[in-house]
Design a protein that fits this description.
The chain has 11 helices and 16 strands. It is an alpha/beta fold. A hairpin with a 4-residue loop joins strand 13 and strand 14. Helix 9 packs parallel to helix 11.
Length: about 400
């Protein structure tokens, strides 16, 4: 080991004091995500095949389609935006061919449309696609993001080596806070280190699993179908709430591997889970039917309910699930999901739902049918098609 000189010691003390000054009052920005964030992310459809013209087109479509009015707010550039190396000063650099105008100009464009700008990087030395990661550059990168006008940071977990997840993600939290610009902080840690147990004071949302893909129940080496991811959310509801959300990953609604029914059921369950609603489809070819799913205000209201309760699995059966979500004003959302490959008949006797106040009673509103179908003083019997849902809101009288 080299001998530490007096000068080196002095420099080390100065650095420690500087870091201490930056982090003495470090915390996450509070109040940025009282309900689960909503937006659009480039990864599920485009992966690294992105550029500023494409991104601006998506921004325009979010506004023109009515998605912005429905609550989709954050527009996030995922992995693939960077040049291969940092510049001579150690700063991240946008790929000059993909984003020739730079990220500040892109953020300005997003803001001019009344939306907020998000960006991706990684807690390791490299991103998942081999571009410069943030490890060792957290405070420098946070200041750069602030100068660009970044509102949302998705921070991935590739090339992390033996790093401790809580410590590593907390370092970037501290850096964002020191930079002074409020940023929603999304921990894309894949659930490897059970972030729901420690991340409430670190980020605003944290991934609970590997990546979602556009299939129902497939399970690859890393990519997972949405039904498989849904099953992994059971028991996590106690960790979620305003400003700290479980994130079962982005939406595959409208992507080619899902049928219309599977897309609608996927959206229904994510709303029951109080999941961040980050669309990931190609908005240029979105059908009116898929747009209707993504912008259904009653479904979104379940997801965005201010009480901030994540839904829970009320009943598990080999071919069906019943999910329940407590809502504000005494309401409840209930979602019956046919997980099997054949139709089944759902019989409902509300007396079996002991959490309900049947003395006062509820009107039963069918979210996808957009109609009140009766009240809880009646019993019901419905046939539910394979992989389909009956998505209800019980409105307390």
């Amino acid at each position: 080991m080299k001998k530490i000189t007096s000068l080196t010691k002095t420099a080390g003390v100065a650095l420690a004091l500087a870091v201490s000054a930056n982090t003495a009052h470090a915390q996450k920005f509070e109040g940025l995500a009282p309900t689960p964030p909503m937006g659009w992310n480039s990864w599920n459809t485009f992966e690294v095949d992105i550029n500023e013209d494409l991104f601006k087109e998506m921004v325009d479509l979010i506004v023109d389609s009515g998605m912005k009015d429905a609550g989709y707010e954050y527009v996030v550039v995922d992995d693939g935006w960077e040049a291969m190396e940092r510049d001579a000063h150690g700063n991240l650099v946008p790929d000059p061919e993909k984003f020739p105008s730079g990220m500040k100009a892109l953020a300005d464009y997003v803001h001019s449309k009344g939306l907020k700008f998000g960006i991706h990087n990684c807690a390791g030395t490299k991103t998942c696609n081999g571009l410069p990661g943030g490890r060792g550059h957290e405070f420098q990168d946070a200041r750069l993001y602030a100068s660009w006008g970044v509102d949302y940071l998705k921070y991935d977990w590739c090339s992390h080596g033996t790093a401790d997840a809580k410590e590593t993600y907390s370092t970037m939290r501290d850096a964002l806070y020191a930079a002074g610009r409020p940023v929603v902080y999304s921990l894309c840690e894949w659930g490897n280190n059970e972030p729901w147990k420690w991340a409430e004071d670190v980020g605003h949302l944290w991934r609970t699993t590997g990546d979602v893909t556009d299939c129902y129940t497939c399970q690859g080496e890393y990519d997972l179908g949405w039904k498989f991811i849904m099953d992994l959310q059971v028991g996590l509801e106690k960790y979620a709430g305003p400003d700290h959300w479980n994130d079962p990953d982005m939406l595959e609604v409208g992507n080619p591997g899902l049928t219309f029914t599977e897309s609608r059921s996927h959206f229904s369950i994510w709303c029951m889970l109080a999941a961040p609603l980050m669309a990931g489809n190609d908005l240029r070819v979105m059908s009116p039917e898929i747009l209707d799913i993504l912008t259904n205000r009653e479904a979104i209201a379940v997801d965005q309910d201010p009480l901030g309760k994540q839904g829970y699995l009320f009943m598990d059966h080999p071919t069906k699930n019943i999910w329940v979500k407590e809502l504000s004003d005494g309401d409840y959302a209930i979602c019956f999901l046919n997980t099997g490959d054949k139709p089944y008949t759902q019989r409902v006797n509300w007396k079996h739902y002991a959490f309900l106040d049947l003395e006062t009673g509820y009107d039963v509103y069918d979210i996808w049918a957009d109609e009140v179908i009766g009240a809880t003083d009646e019993n019901y019997e419905w046939e539910i098609a394979p992989r389909d849902v009956r998505f209800l809101r019980l409105r307390k009288r």
